[in-house]
Structures are given as C-alpha cells and as structure tokens.
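User: Can you recover a sequence for this backbone? Please restate the input before giving your answer.

Assistant: Of course. Working from this structure:
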C-alpha cells in the first residue's frame, strides 16, 4: 500500500467525507462539547492543519486523517486540561487575533479496515513535517494511549511511564510517538470531560447505568462516575503529553 498524505487545503475534495470515515472510536468519545470549536470549522479555518491520506489501492477514498491546531500557551507549561485545553486555547487565539506560539496534534484516525497496517507511524511523520513547514519548532500532543482501556483503574501516572525491557513505552501508541522522536512529558489528568444524563449514557454505551459510583465502559480509559439520584454521569479522561522537537 502506497499512502499519499497531503493537507486538506491541497485536497478539498475530502471535505465532505472528512468526519464520515469508519473508525474504532467509542460513541461516547464523540460527545465532548468542546470538540465543535475545532471540528465545525476544521475545513474552513484550519485546512492547512488537517492531513488527509488515501492509498493507491483506492485513490480518492479517505484512508486516514490527522488533525492539528495552533494555539497560544502563555505560561509555557503544558496544561492539565490537555485535549480540551488545546481546542479552547486555539479558539481563543483565533478570536483574539493572537499569533499562535504552539501547535498540537488533536487526533490521528485510521480507517477501521486499515488498522494494524502501519498507517499511524506514517501519519505521525507527516504531522511532524507539516508542523515544521508551518514554522513551528515543536509539535506537542495529548496522546490517548490505545491499550489503557484494558486497565481503567490503573492511574495514568503509572501507566504512561511503564516501559518494556528495551526501554520503549509499554503502550503501542506511545511507542509510535517515542520512535518518531517524541519525549513523554507529563500526564494531562483532565484532558477531556464528557457528561450526560443516565439516558444519554445508556444510549451511548448500552449499559444500564443504574448504580452509583464508578462504572467501566468499553473503550474508557477510566471509569465513568455515576450519580443516579441526580441523573448524571461524568467521564474525565486523562491523556499523556508528548513533545516532538522539530529542530
């Protein structure tokens, strides 16, 4: 498979299907209220920051996408609110007419039938190259470790820094980033917050949500906190900040 990776600005024909690609994301992950501050305007405001890929076997069909966002980080330290924080800061940067001083990856999504075929490392490399082309000296990312869902009760501060015998991260997605030149910096303990009524969570997961306390959900990196008496449940996802030096 020969993958062709370009920006959405170069290939606007992918705009109609950009968010329609079959993927492995759990449904509840699509319910973050901060997300539309980026995705609703990704094609019109950030096409140079969005990567799209197709392959020679099916040219014109989206194989993967990679989204990045410029933002301003005034205090210098990567924020505890990770993914949500990048999007909020990026939106404020644009609204205030400020010049962004950072760029962050938001996601790399590979079409479901291409998972495990080596697409992700190619997208990471292309994301690094595009960030450098745009004039940034560092690409950061609030990474969602892809096997953490198997250990929802393990603290991310423990999981993120777990290594194999060869010194590389235990988690495969963190390993891809480190092999590409990234350094694991810190945990973002409240990178994404998703709340809903019990009925909404039942619809998103198919689970009963009929008892209080922590409830494990498929695909969740941590349990969901459930309050039946008050008819709500909240999921707070930790991510892992990595830094890719580009110079």
């Amino acid at each position: 498979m020969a993958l062709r990776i370009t920006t959405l600005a170069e290939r606007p024909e992918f705009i109609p299907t950009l968010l329609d690609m079959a993927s492995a994301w759990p449904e509840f992950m699509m319910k973050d209220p901060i997300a539309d501050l980026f995705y609703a305007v990704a094609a019109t405001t950030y096409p140079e920051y969005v990567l799209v890929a197709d392959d020679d076997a099916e040219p014109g069909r989206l194989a993967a996408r990679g989204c990045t966002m410029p933002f301003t980080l005034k205090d210098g330290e990567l924020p505890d609110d990770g993914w949500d924080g990048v999007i909020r800061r990026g939106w404020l940067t644009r609204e205030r007419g400020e010049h962004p001083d950072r760029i962050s990856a938001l996601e790399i999504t590979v079409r479901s039938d291409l998972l495990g075929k080596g697409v992700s490392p190619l997208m990471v490399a292309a994301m690094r190259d595009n960030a450098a082309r745009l004039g940034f000296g560092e690409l950061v990312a609030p990474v969602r470790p892809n096997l953490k869902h198997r250990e929802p009760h393990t603290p991310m501060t423990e999981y993120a820094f777990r290594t194999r015998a060869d010194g590389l991260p235990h988690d495969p997605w963190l390993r891809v980033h480190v092999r590409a030149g990234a350094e694991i910096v810190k945990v973002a303990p409240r990178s994404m917050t998703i709340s809903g009524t019990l009925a909404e969570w039942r619809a998103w997961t198919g689970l009963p949500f009929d008892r209080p306390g922590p409830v494990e959900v498929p695909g969740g990196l941590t349990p969901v906190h459930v309050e039946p008496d008050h008819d709500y449940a909240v999921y707070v996802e930790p991510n892992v900040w990595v830094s890719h030096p580009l110079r």
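That completes the design. The chain has seven helices and nine strands.
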